[in-house]
Amino acid sequence: MTDADETAPKDATEHTRAANRAARDTLPLHDRRDYEDAARGFVATLEDALVAGPGGLPIADLRSHDFLTASDDAPDTVHPSLWRHAQVNHHYGLFEVAEGVYQVRGVDLANITIIEGDAGIIVIDPLTFAETARAGLALYREHRGDRPVTGLVYTHSHADHFGGSRAILEDAHGGAFPVMAPDGFLYEAAAENVYAGTAMTRRALYMYGPLLAPGPRGQVDAGLANTLSNGGSATLVAPTDLIRETGETRTVDGVEMVFQMAPGTEAPAEMLIHFPKLRLLCAAEDLNHLMHNLYTLRGAQVRDAATWWKTLNDTIQLFGDDTDVVVGQHGWPRWGTADIREYLANQRDLYKFIHDETLRLANRGQTMTEIAEELRLPAGLEKEWYSHGYYGSLSHNAKAVYQRYLGWYDSHPAHLNQLPPSEAGPRYVEYMGGADAVIEKARRAFEEGDYRWVAEVLTHVVFADPANREAALLQADTLEQLGYQSENPTWRNEYLMGALELRNGVRDLGTIQLATADVFAAMTPDMILDFAGIKLNGTEAGDLRGEIGWTVTAEGEDPVDLLLELRNGVLVYTRGASFDGVATTVASSKAALAAALFGGTSIDDAIASGDIAVTGDDSVVRKLFGLLDDFPLWFPIVQP
Length: 640
What we know:
Number of strands: 21
Strand order of the largest sheet: 1-4-5-6-7-8-9-10
Helix content: 40-55%
């Protein structure tokens, strides 16, 4: 076998083909409503189906998933339910939702919704990057005229819903307009993308699979859309008008909006919007054509299923009788008052079922793993396509509920202080008769289609001996078949990314910009110093002690005095503390502090230029910054 052969994706095994055929026979594939709804109101798409970024590199290639149109019959390497969902997601361009309401879908992970007012347009959720937002606005204006932006709304604090905001600001034709967002938006938008940002980004590469080649043996879908956009200009225009309570209203450009707060549902800061005159509900990301995540595989705080179902229940009471059209900021709309009420009620029931059943089984003594293995949806929910696990899954959502209430520990003492994989692996392999014996047994299990077990047992061999190529390749083949059998596209991407890196190793494709200047501006000095504390290598800091009095300034804000104390391996800061007796004081702008912390400039250069002005002993400042870790993005996941 050549090196090229051993690293290339394989075909589906007979076990996988049989599993996917069996799944197909249980699905109502004759139900074409979602295809029709996703295509309804189509106006036009981008002329070359491409959005270019800096240097002309493609940020979004809408044609990359045209392979989905080849046949309605799923290939052997794709679960038939996933193939159907990916096909429905493959409707892209400008769509008329209702009179005066348009969406641009498929040019990014999220949708941009446009509401026409008396003089201009209100833009809801300006996508991930300025380039995709700019392309979406241009497509709209090409067919609806050059209407100015008169309002901008962020439904929630995830980056795919605000990152293109500067493109909207620059397109405002010189006029000022309100930027509306839910209370807490700015903090959550900055915090989620920074504190665990490197780990979350690396894990997101597994969840969404952008390094996988699009195709039947590769990346097929991302759940919320076919794929991500990548490499554009992420921006953040700060809101000027925060919505704090359900029932608050705003009228912008003649368009009345009624808000429902939804914190702690799909995002920490989120809100839904009802347009009474249009009888239109924008459900943000709380109502979807899929089961959403209570825990996202990229990593984030667990979401509260109880808050989610109660929010949707309130939505029914508030707006159910007064809504003819519902739009989400992912996916496609639904029309008809009765149908929308049923859609809302079933999605509500979905999250309540997962919440209540998980806790019922936990209270009967079952662990999260046992619950995830046992749980099945009632037939009334299972028959609806929008209950299927195309983003969240019943398995990992049940584990999320368990984790929220009971944490990671299942109360079995053997699991209280387990050995790490690189220490446990060699012991398992020794107990099982050595690596060759394990691989031989694993290969027999592979031939029998017992892929979950093969994946688990070979992890011990790989972590015992990362150089064991035979084990790595067999585990890659195993993960690949598990991916081919997965209905959930994020599970598929996780499995196939694992296979890719077992075969090819981790490729260093460069660094990422963890936070942009806009995110710096959104962060308070406290948040910036919180991140400094995260970067501090506490082991190296050890018993070192030092104090710095730091004054931080920002345009339009009062100066902030912060006493920084390095002690016991932590960096503590206190606002407003006296600098009396402190030998070293510093003055800087918030931007200069952030640039030094995030790697935009070195501390030596910042001190030399005067951007960070030190009075007294500057060695304390240099020593502190010398103790801050850099976080490499391309850390290994499937190997030690």
